[in-house]
Each structure stands twice: as C-alpha cells, then as structure tokens.
Amino acid sequence: MTPQAAIPVVVNGAGGKMGCEVIKAVWQAPDLQLVGAVDRNPALFGQDAGELAGIGAIELPILNDLQGILVMATQGEIQGVMVDFTHPDSVYDNVRTAIAYGIRPVVGTTGLSPAQLQDLAEFAEKASTGVLVIPNFSIGMVLLQQAAIAAAQYFEHLEIIELHHNQKADAP
Questions:
Q1: Taking a C-beta distance cutoff of 8 angstroms, is the pair 131, 121 a contact?
Q2: Does residue 41 lie within any of the structural domains?
Q3: In the annotation, is 87 catalytic?
Q4: 97, 65, 99, 58: which is closest to 79 by C-alpha?
Q5: Based on the structure, what is the number of domains in the chain?
Q6: Which domain holds residue 81?
Q7: Active-site residue, from 17, 87, 126, 168
Q8: Is the pTM of this model over 0.85?
C-alpha cells in the first residue's frame, strides 16, 4: 500500500495562543505537513515557529507573507489547508485569499458578519472548495451545544450565551 501524502497546512495567526497550539498539533500529526506560519506582529518575523510554540526548533520561520505561503501550500498533489486564528479585521480577507488560491480555510477567528459568511460561502462554492468556520474550538462549548440540543426537546425556548476572557482580542 502506498502511503498517502501529508496535507499541507498553513497557520495564520501563528504567534497567538491558539496559533501556537495549532502549530504543535499539526507538527505532531503524521498526516499533516506544516508548510507555513504567518503572523502580522513584526516582533515575531523570522522567529522559529516551533520555538515560539514550545516544541523546539523546526526550521520554519514566522513570516508576514500570507499569499506567498499559500502559494507554497498549492505545490503538492493534495489540496492545502489554512487554519486562521487572526483578528476580526483581517479574517474575511484572509479567507477570501485562501479560497482564491485553492486552499481550504478552517476559521477559528470570531467576528465574521452574516453577510460576510454568506459571501464566503458563495465564493467557496464557485471555487469548488470547502470552508469550515468554527468560532469556538473548546470542548466545553461543543458539549454545551450537544446538551442544548438534547434539552431543546423539553423546553420551548433555549439560549446559549458564550463569554470570553477579557484578554481575548476577538471576543464578541
């Protein structure tokens, strides 16, 4: 059996808390290949992404060239993925850019408006690529959503309120 090539992954927002966690997870996954780490913080440019993420040197620098890194992710046989944990003021453009390059975005950044989500869905459909927008990756939130689904059969009205810590840059 021929081993399958690894999925190329670009981490956008690599210098943030979640970006560092994604770098760790991708680096440790045998079916994923970390091909780029992007951040807009000039203090991080050129730093080793692995060192920043706490896994040691991996010889992959943090860059500020999303388009250039996305091009690298298109070079293999397998369609690449961009994981975006950036900021509400840039996430929409980041996702449109990834779709335009044929890269599948996985979005953990909050702050996209319903109109932006609709536009991205239409753009992705035209480009025949998938997009995942998952504004909360926490296990607690997933469990809460499942509990709400189960409880909904017993209550006429049900609401989930999500709060973030006060240091979260994109807290709604």
A1: yes
A2: yes
A3: no
A4: 99
A5: 1
A6: 7-138
A7: 168
A8: no
pLDDT of 53 reads 97
Residue 121 lies in a domain: yes
Q: Is residue 25 part of a domain?
A: yes
CA distance 87 to 97: 15
Binned average pLDDT, 10 residues per bin, the chain of 172 residues: 78 96 97 97 97 97 96 90 95 98 94 95 96 81 82 84 64 53
The amino acid at 101: Y
SS3 120: helix
Contact indicator for 17, 35 with CB cutoff of 8 Å: no
65: CATH: 3.40.50.720
DSSP 84-113: E---HHHHHHHHHHHHHTTPEEEE------
164 is catalytic: yes
Phi-psi domain of 171 (left: phi exceeds 0; alpha: psi -120 through 50; beta: other): beta
Q: Is the dihedral of CA 81, 64, 66, 108 positive or negative?
A: positive
Domain contains 1 = no
